[in-house]
Amino acid sequence: MLFGEEHVRRYVETDGAEGHDWQGTVTLLLTTTGRKTGRRRTTPLIYQKNGDDYLVVASKGGADEPPLWYLNLQADPEVTVQVRGDRFTARARTATPEEKPGLWRKMTATWPAYDEYQQKTSRDIPVVVLERV
């Protein structure tokens, strides 16, 4: 099973032939700019399409602090996304309170553990919308 840096490396090398399909789900690569270092960081994330947009969840397994990639995109919402061999620039935003319930249901249908992660923390786990620029 691919995970972490190896997941990213194989995904990039194979245009997602290895790494896109992961544990019964699909993953994309999200590249953010470090808010402190300015370095580009790439993270594999489970996603779902929502119209022309892509959805990801900033869960960090239910930790009380958000994942670093989420903090990075809050500082700089311009990101790079790779879905299989398709690489594009996107603008990331947190789903609004009005749209989150429907998007959350879509994501938990894909990865039911998100509901368990939310129960583990008092932090409101965000759904992030990636809008192609």
From TrEMBL:
Catalytic activity, reaction form: oxidized coenzyme F420-(gamma-L-Glu)(n) + a quinol + H(+) = reduced coenzyme F420-(gamma-L-Glu)(n) + a quinone
InterPro entries from the UniProt entry: F420H2_quin_Rdtase, Split_barrel_FMN-bd
Gene3D superfamilies: Electron Transport, Fmn-binding Protein, Chain A
Source superkingdom: Bacteria
Family of this protein: Belongs to the F420H(2)-dependent quinone reductase family.
Protein name as annotated: Nitroreductase family deazaflavin-dependent oxidoreductase
Origin species: Actinoallomurus spadix
